[in-house]
Write a structure and sequence with these properties.
The protein is an alpha/beta fold and 504 residues long. The chain has helices at 11-38, 45-68, 78-87, 89-100, 108-123, 127-132, 174-186, 197-206, 223-232, 250-258, 271-310, 319-322, 327-373, 421-426, 430-442, 474-481, 486-503; strands at 2-3, 8-9, 150-151, 166-170, 190-194, 211-214, 241-245, 263-266, 383-384, 388-396, 400-407, 412-419, 452-458, 461-467. The protein has 17 helices and 14 strands. The strands form three sheets. It has a six-stranded mixed β-sheet with strand order 3-5-4-6-7-8, sandwiched between helices. Strands 9-10-11-12-14-13 form a six-stranded antiparallel β-sheet. Strands 1-2 form a two-stranded antiparallel sheet. Strand 10 and strand 11 (400-407) form a beta hairpin. The chain is rod-shaped and about 130 Å long. The model is unreliable at 130-161 (pLDDT under 50).
Length: 504
């Protein structure tokens, strides 16, 4: 777009014009450099001479474009752009003359590349005429391009080449994709091409890539929008993106970096610089992949710790991590050994508890008979203290009796310990001792200590309510079973020791 009053190009029109003029320059330089690399044999001197002439001419054209249309200048007139188109005819004709003789070469693949050079040269200077015209506001594409992605197979990696990577090239101009694809395949990379932003996003959703080379100016979905979507999706935000575009104004570069691009490379690019920047991005990607894998392994160790805590850990679950040679591998080895030891200890404890349960089960019939024969004050079905329904007597001793009762207000079973009425009447300190016992017991919270709830007096009967635990006393167990098996004794002893540790 131009300023009609002053006849100058707008910043947008100037940027688009530079893009259209530099695009064929990029293609010519790319093909010339690759063909020169292949023309190292002494018998190909004629090829080298012609290609060097074409390369020199196109570099002169680039200097002319940059001088006439500097990206920071805001007063370029439309007539200057039209004059530039005429000026570029000189290097354009030099390129065409230099490549005339190459069209007769017997190598068909070589001639096909030469024709691409000539096709780009024929567009040199012409694409800018329509852009600079006051009657049009947007640049026209250099030529139609397909909209479907094109995949390629990697060429054999030469000795000393970098580690091959999966690279996605996104550009709506076919010749741009082709020259970049050829350049990357020479480095041993596997290249997939996409002719539109939508096709690129679809490919990224299907399979992983190590790097994306993304053009800025594309129809429908431009490079800025594609970059924003790549960096906005959790699945692709860690994929490095290098913007490669003939659009080289500072605002475009800043916008790309702000949206998350790792680098920005203006066309035409130097092969050495392209290789260096791709290598740097791939190194960062590999470091990030290692970091993600490391964090994933750390999370596995954390998950194993949770499994141990919940009793669900399986020995050897970290076997693959224990072979690592770093600190995480050492941690995994130590943890796996500790977990195995904990599991063995738990198995031993479980075996002891199982033996104790068998002893209790064997003693239960005799204990039940003793409970039934015990002389108690409260009877089954009796209502006590206004809220408890006596279920049965659990046991009796010299100081009182213990009952299983149902708490009707809370809807749960409890144990009620009572003092004999005659004991309370004859010993004035009995009640005080029971209160003190209740206060002390309520301060203890441990799985091996029965919880004490409350103290009360009803109809002259002093009582304490406690947690009900199905079982029997150690005294009754010993009286009924006699000598216990060693595992059962160990189970009892360890639980008593833990309870005493908490109590003291």
């Amino acid at each position: 777009m131009t300023d009609q009053a002053a006849g100058t190009l707008s910043a947008q029109a100037l940027s688009a014009l530079r893009h259209d003029l530099r695009t064929p320059v990029n293609q010519i330089i790319g093909y010339c450099e690759m063909l020169l690399e292949d023309a190292g044999d002494a018998g190909l001197a004629a090829r080298r001479g012609a290609l060097e002439e074409a390369l020199a001419a196109v570099r002169d054209a680039l200097v002319t474009i940059d001088r006439a249309l500097p990206s920071g200048r805001g007063d370029v007139r439309a007539v200057e752009a039209e004059t530039l188109s005429d000026t570029l005819r000189v290097p354009r004709d030099k390129i065409l003359r230099a490549t005339d003789a190459l069209l007769t070469d017997a190598d068909r693949a070589f001639v096909a590349d030469v024709r691409k050079i000539r096709s780009a040269a024929e567009r040199l200077g012409l694409a800018g005429t329509a852009t600079a015209s006051p009657s049009t506001g947007t640049p026209k594409p250099s030529h139609p391009t397909p909209s479907h992605p094109v995949s390629s197979h990697p060429t054999p990696t030469s000795s000393g080449a970098p580690t091959p990577a999966q690279i996605l090239v996104v550009d709506d101009i076919e010749d741009n994709r082709a020259v970049l694809q050829r350049r990357l395949e020479r480095e041993g990379h596997a290249v997939t091409c996409a002719a539109s932003g939508g096709a690129a996003l679809a490919l990224l959703a299907e399979r992983p890539f190590d790097l994306v080379l993304l053009d800025v100016m594309m129809p429908e979905l431009d490079g800025f929008a594609v970059l924003e979507r790549i960096k906005g999706a959790p699945e692709t935000r860690d994929v490095p993106v290098i913007m490669i575009s003939a659009l080289d104004d500072l605002a475009s570069v800043v916008r790309c970096i702000e949206h998350g691009a790792e680098d920005y490379l203006p066309k035409p690019f130097e092969p050495v610089l392209l290789k260096a920047r791709i290598g740097a991005c791939l190194d960062k990607k590999r470091m990030r992949d290692r970091e993600v894998a490391y964090l994933r392994d750390v999370e596995r160790v954390i998950g194993a710790a949770r499994a141990v805590e919940s009793g669900e850990y399986r020995g050897g679950a970290l076997a693959d991590l224990t072979s690592r040679g770093d600190e995480l591998g050492r941690l995994a080895r130590v943890f796996d050994g500790m977990a195995a030891g904990v599991k063995a200890r738990e198995d031993r404890l479980q075996g002891r508890l199982d033996e104790l349960r068998r002893e209790i089960a064997a003693a239960r019939p005799a204990a039940a008979a003793e409970e039934a024969a015990a002389a108690t004050t409260l009877q089954p079905g009796q209502q006590f203290a206004g809220r408890y329904e006596i279920v049965r007597a659990i046991g009796a001793g010299g100081m009182g009796a213990v009952y299983l009762a149902h708490d009707r207000e809370l809807g749960e079973d409890v144990a009620i310990k009572t003092l004999h009425a005659e004991l309370v009447g004859s010993d004035e300190t009995a009640t005080a001792r029971l209160k003190a016992e209740t206060r002390l017991a309520r301060k203890i919270s441990h799985r091996n200590v029965v919880r004490t709830h409350d103290f009360g007096v009803c109809d002259g009967v002093c009582y304490v309510t406690m947690e009900f635990v199905e079982g029997m006393t150690v005294r009754r167990l010993l009286e009924t079973r006699g000598r216990l098996a060693i595992p059962a004794v160990l189970a009892l002893g360890s639980q008593l020791a833990e309870a005493l540790e908490v109590a003291h």
